[in-house]
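User: Design a sequence. Structure:
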C-alpha cells in the first residue's frame, strides 16, 4: 500500500525538468538582487516554509517504513529471498555495505580537494544555522546515545539514529509475535506511512516554487560562485559512481567468473537503456538478455534479477553518505570518523527502507536521516534534488551493472559460445 501510494503521487509530481528550470531561473534572478532586498527576505520565507513542510515528515515516515518493512520480512515465511537461498540476501546486503564504505572513504578527500575561494564558501555557509559547539562526546557516550531510552524524546529532538534503532528492534519483535496481533500493530504504522506519503506528495507538487525561492536567496547571497560549488559536487558524485561501475565489472570477473570482454559486450545495451530511462525497472528486459548472453540460466535470471531490481541499489548507500558529507562540508561542520562510522549502517538501512519508492520521495527518506544523524543541515537538499538528474543517469547504469554482476555471483553462469 505504501509503495502504491508513493507511485500514485509520483505521477502527479512535476518533472525534474521543471525543477532545473526553477533552479536556473532562481539563481539567475538572485544574482541581480541585493542580499538585503525585501524580495530575498520573502524568498527565504517561502523557501523555508516549503522546506519545513518536507522536514516535518522525515521522523514519522522513516520510523513507519523501517518498522513495517522489518516486521513484514520476519512474518513472511515464503519470502522469495529464502527460496533462492542464503546467498542472495548475503550478496546484496554485503554489496550495499561496500557501497557505503566506498562513499565514506572517497568523499572526504575529494571534498578536501575542492578549489573554491574561501570567501565564497563563507558566504554559502552563512545560509546555514551556526553549528553547535559543545564538546564532542567520546566513543562510549556516542554509542550509548544511540540507545533510545525515551523514544518520544528522541522523536521530539529529531534524533534520527536512536529512533531508527528503536524502529528496527520493534519491527524484529513484531515479526516474531502472533500474526493477528502483529497486523494490529502494523496497520496503524502502514496508515501513518501512507499519510506521510500524501503529505510529501503535496509538498513536492509545488517543488519548483520552493526550489525557485531557495535558489533566488542563495543566488543573492553567494552569487554565481554557488554554480562552481555545485559543479564540483556533481563531479564528486559522478566520480564515486564510476568507481562503483568499475567495481561491478570486477565482481563479475573475479566473483562471477565472467570474462571482462563478454560482460562488457553483454551489458552495453542494458546500460544504454538505463542511462536514457533512469529506471532499473524499465531496463529489466534488457538485463534479462544481458544475463543470457553471459551464460546465466533463464530460470535463475528470472528469479534473481526482479528481486535485485526491487531490493537492491548499489549506489544508494554511497550516494546517501556523499550527500550527507557534502551538506556538512558546505555548512562548515566537521564529521568525526566515529560519527561517520555510526552513520554508515543508517545509510544502508535507509536505502533498504525506501525500496520501490519514486526518486523524489526516496531522495528525502534516505538522505535526510543520515544527514541529520551526522549533524548536517538539510537546507540545500532541494537544490541537490534539482540537479540530481545528471548524476542519476550514471547511478542507474551502476545499479543495472551490479544487478547482473550480483546475479552472476549468486548463480554462476555456464559457458556460452561467442
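Assistant: Done.
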Amino acid at each position: 500500500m505504501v509503495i502504491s501510494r508513493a507511485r500514485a503521487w509520483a505521477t502527479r509530481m512535476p518533472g525534474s525538468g521543471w525543477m532545473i528550470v526553477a533552479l536556473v531561473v532562481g539563481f539567475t534572478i538572485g544574482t541581480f538582487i541585493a542580499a538585503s532586498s525585501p524580495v530575498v527576505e520573502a524568498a527565504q520565507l517561502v523557501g523555508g516554509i516549503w522546506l519545513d513542510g518536507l522536514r516535518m515528515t522525515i521522523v514519522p515516515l522513516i520510523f513507519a517504513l523501517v518498522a513495517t518493512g522489518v516486521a513484514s520480512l520476519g512474518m513472511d515465511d515464503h519470502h522469495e529471498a529464502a527460496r533462492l537461498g542464503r546467498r542472495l540476501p548475503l550478496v546484496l546486503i554485503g554489496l550495499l555495505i561496500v557501497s557505503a564504505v566506498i562513499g565514506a572513504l572517497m568523499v572526504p578527500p575529494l571534498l578536501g580537494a575542492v578549489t573554491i575561494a574561501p570567501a565564497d564558501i563563507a558566504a554559502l555557509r552563512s545560509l546555514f544555522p551556526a553549528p553547535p559547539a559543545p564538546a564532542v562526546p567520546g566513543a562510549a557516550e556516542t554509542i550509548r546515545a544511540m540507545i533510545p531510552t525515551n523514544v518520544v524524546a528522541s522523536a521530539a529532538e529529531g534524533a534520527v539514529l536512536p529512533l531508527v534503532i528503536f524502529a528496527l528492534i520493534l519491527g524484529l519483535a513484531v515479526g516474531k509475535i502472533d500474526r493477528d496481533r502483529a497486523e494490529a500493530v502494523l496497520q496503524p504504522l502502514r496508515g501513518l506511512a501512507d499519510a506521510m506519503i500524501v503529505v510529501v506528495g503535496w509538498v513536492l507538487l509545488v517543488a519548483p516554487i520552493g526550489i525557485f525561492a531557495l535558489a533566488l536567496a542563495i543566488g543573492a547571497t553567494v552569487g554565481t560562485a554557488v554554480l562552481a560549488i555545485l559543479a564540483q559536487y556533481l563531479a564528486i558524485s559522478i566520480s564515486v559512481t564510476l568507481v562503483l561501475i568499475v567495481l561491478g565489472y570486477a565482481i563479475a570477473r573475479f566473483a562471477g567468473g565472467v570474462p571482462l570482454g563478454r560482460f562488457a559486450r553483454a551489458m552495453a545495451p542494458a546500460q544504454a537503456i538505463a542511462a536514457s530511462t533512469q529506471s532499473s525497472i524499465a531496463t529489466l528486459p534488457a538485463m534479462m538478455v544481458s544475463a543470457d548472453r553471459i551464460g546465466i540460466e533463464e530460470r535463475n535470471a528470472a528469479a534473481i534479477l526482479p528481486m535485485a531490481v526491487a531490493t537492491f541499489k548499489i549506489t544508494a548507500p554511497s550516494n546517501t553518505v556523499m550527500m550527507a558529507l557534502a551538506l556538512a562540508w558546505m555548512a562548515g561542520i566537521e564529521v568525526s570518523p566515529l560519527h561517520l562510522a555510526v552513520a554508515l549502517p543508517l545509510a544502508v538501512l535507509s536505502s533498504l527502507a525506501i525500496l520501490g519508492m519514486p526518486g523524489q520521495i526516496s531522495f528525502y527518506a534516505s538522505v535526510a536521516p543520515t544527514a541529520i544523524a551526522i549533524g548536517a543541515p538539510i537546507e540545500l537538499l532541494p537544490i541537490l534534488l534539482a540537479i540530481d538528474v545528471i548524476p542519476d543517469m550514471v547511478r542507474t547504469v551502476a545499479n543495472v551493472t551490479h544487478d547482473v554482476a550480483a546475479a552472476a555471483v549468486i548463480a554462476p553462469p555456464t559457458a556460452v559460445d561467442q
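The chain has 20 helices and no strands. The two ends are 45 Å apart (CA to CA).
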